[in-house]
Design a protein that fits this description.
By secondary structure, the chain is mainly α. It contains eleven helices and two strands.
């Protein structure tokens, strides 16, 4: 990781709203469930509510914000689009306009100072430092397609209300169905927020540090199969950066990618269409380039060793 090090822009003003929110969410969640469990225990309804909220958050952000709004890897019906727009803010991710705009900048300027979550600033900068020190985006020049969408503009105006309602009211209602509204709030609200957000942040941090680079070595994105289980199928990040228009990120049949299965199921029911798949011959051709580079570097090692020995002998 030393070769990636650069000075992160921590000198930017601190966004105190984001800082306080991300600091308090896990504290309230952990302290809350500990105190609540001491009096009322942990019931199956609490865990069911947590699982439901995690699933809804994952569906709205990964196949929704990421693969639909940011990359347009498929077409969604208005009903499915509205579903994403209403539920994605429940994790306090910003509006689709802001999210997609920042993410398109990430792909366009990856590993440079213009990359919003530039991994060259270090793990913690890419993980959440950019959020703590982030500034509000004033223009959306790179999302003209989203600006034309009245549903997206409506969500941009009201995403904070959707965030509070989805993050706290919805899990309370789910908990109420089990007779435990406070348990629903703590498990499906605060605990779920802390876990889900840090899992998604791993895509910007860990997925640019750990793993292989079978499709492109021109940037830091990496394939890490184990990240699939924390990120709803986003772990094959090197493939994604090589082929950002593909609706699959776990592109092999055996890759764990619930998001691609969700999108395919929506297509089966007529709620999605025009699913983009990168042709296999293009994937294979792309994979040969890093392989040739690896062979070349391996072949150069003996030559470098000999050259180094000759240089050392000349100095004696």
């Amino acid at each position: 990781m030393n070769e990636l090090r650069a000075r992160p822009p921590y000198g930017q003003p601190i966004n105190w709203t984001n800082t306080i929110f991300f600091a308090l969410t896990p504290v309230v969640g952990i302290a809350g469930i500990w105190l609540y469990a001491r009096s009322y225990g942990i019931a199956a309804g609490d865990l069911i509510g947590f699982a439901i909220m995690m699933l809804l958050s994952s569906i709205a952000v990964i196949p929704g914000y990421h693969r639909y709004f940011a990359h347009r890897t498929y077409s969604a019906s208005r009903a499915l689009e509205a579903f994403y727009l209403v539920l994605a803010p429940m994790s306090f991710h910003p509006s689709a306009l802001v999210w997609a705009s920042e993410h398109r900048d990430h792909h366009k300027f990856v590993d440079t100072p213009k990359d919003p979550y530039n991994i060259r600033g270090g793990f913690w900068w890419a993980h959440m430092g950019w959020i703590v020190h982030g500034s509000t985006r004033a223009t959306f020049d790179n999302v003209p397609d989203l600006l034309r969408d009245p549903l997206v503009r409506w969500q941009h105006r009201h995403w904070r209300a959707l965030a509070f309602g989805g993050s706290f009211l919805l899990p309370m209602l789910i908990g109420l169905a089990f007779g435990r509204p406070l348990g629903g709030l703590l498990w499906g609200g605060f605990v779920r927020l802390a876990i889900f957000d840090h899992c998604t942040f791993l895509i910007n941090s860990a997925a640019h540090i750990y793993g292989g680079q079978p499709y492109t070595s021109d940037e830091t994105a990496r394939d890490s199969w184990w990240l699939d289980f924390f990120t709803f199928g986003e772990g094959h990040h090197n493939f994604h950066h090589a082929f950002p228009g593909d609706y699959r990120i776990g592109h092999k049949p055996w890759h764990f990618d619930p998001a691609k299965w969700w999108i395919a199921s929506m297509a089966f029911f007529g709620l999605a269409s025009r699913l983009h798949r990168t042709p296999e011959e293009r994937i294979s051709a792309h994979a040969e380039v890093p392989a040739r580079d690896a062979v070349r570097r391996h072949d150069e090692l003996p030559q470098l060793h000999v050259a180094g020995a000759e240089s050392a002998g000349a100095l004696q």
